[in-house]
Amino acid sequence: MAHHRVWLASGLGALLTGALAVFPQASSGLPPERLRDTGLYADWTSRTVAPGHLPFSPQYPLWTDGAVKSRWISLPPGTWIDARDPGAWRFPVGTRLWKEFRFGRRAETRFIEHTAAGWRYATYVWNEDETEAVLAPERGVPQSLEIRDGVRHAIPSRTDCRTCHEAGPTRVLGFGALQLSPDRDPNAPHAEEVPPGGVDLRALVERGLLRNLPDGYLQSPPRIAARSATERAALGYLHANCGSCHVAGGELASLAFSLEYPVTLQPGEGPPAVVTALGRPSKFQVPGWQERVPRLLAGDPDGSVLFARITSRNPVSQMPPLGTRLVDEAAVKLLREWIAEDLTHGRTELAAEHAPTR
Predict the structure, then answer these.
(1) Nearest Cα to Cα of residue 306 among 325, 289, 293
(2) Any bridge partners for residue 148, and if so which?
(3) Measured between alpha carbons, how far is 112 from 119 in angstroms, rounded to an integer?
(4) What's the CA gap between 204 and 179, in Å, rounded?
(5) DSSP assignment of 168-215
(6) What phi and psi, each to the nearest 5 degrees, are found at residue 211?
(7) What distance in Å separates the CA atoms of residue 251 and residue 290, rounded to the nearest whole number?
(8) Ranges assigned E (strand) in the chain
């Protein structure tokens, strides 16, 4: 099946950051057939991650049907991330990231690399006894291991990877100023601890791996400005789970519907998720509903299109459309409370202030 696979990354002979060994390059120009050959592990048998791969954890994790995840990033020796645009970091060629998904056992490890030709993607599928992980076919694996009775995990296709990673201004998701802020939200759904040895915004700057970040971002670490702890967590959830596609300048810009939380937001500016959704008519007709209703309706989650789509797993209407087959019940509870209570206090006026003129 090798001819169905797309090469993820060039330069597999490059020296790993902080490691002494070089990792092999497939003579065919395709990505390695096995995860063990990508350079993630210094020792495959013990699953010892190679030195130089930095673990991290975003403060607002992406929901993937309850998967437990581990993440690593490595930069080529002597390189660094350019953060002069705090909302769209620029990564050096040779940057590599891995993300491991576990549902009781390892299911898949996703791998992306920045090459001279751009970002490229691959996924490795673990076998049942976790002795091997091999390159997934380009079409992905629609029915992988069972995660609940009758429900199986879907390993994404190469097109799915590009759809999510290339919709906005940056190809690296979950690794930015807000997600790595030392001021972490304790109420974030599915909040994770920073892993041992993990890096955050401050650690990256101190190590010289992140440069040109405006001073204010360390003096006052990025934090969602919200009216309550509930709203902060809700906006963070939408940023992580919806904001990679629904961004002001992305491929969906024509919708004028942004769910990201920009770290460049100025004091007094309303969160885009409120400004572009509250009271705004939705172009999407929810199946079974008699009329079109607003994206968000203050005080009425069950009359809000956004809430209807997040709580659905109907392929026609569910959001996000990829990467999940189970409803995130913790997020449903959070968003219901936010829409029913927080949006009724002052947010309606704010949305009206930022309504576009016609």
Answers:
(1) 293
(2) 151
(3) 7
(4) 13
(5) SS-S--S-STTTT-SS--TTSTT--PPPTT---HHHHHHTTSEES--T
(6) -130, 160
(7) 29
(8) 41-43, 48-49, 54-55, 68-74, 81-82, 96-103, 105-115, 118-126, 133-135, 146-148, 151-152, 210-211
At 144-164, the pLDDT tens digits run: 999 999 999 999 988 888 888
Nearest Cα residue to 25 out of 10, 6, 35:
10
User: pTM for this structure?
Assistant: 0.88
- Listed residue (221, 139, 172, 189) closest to 327, CA to CA: 189
pLDDT, tens digit, 9 for 90 and up, residues 258-295: 999 999 999 889 999 999 999 999 999 999 898 889 99
pLDDT digits (tens, 9 = 90+) for 167-202: 888 899 999 999 999 999 999 999 999 999 999 999
Cα end-to-end span (Å), the chain? 54
Nearest-angstrom CA–CA distance, 68 and 179: 17
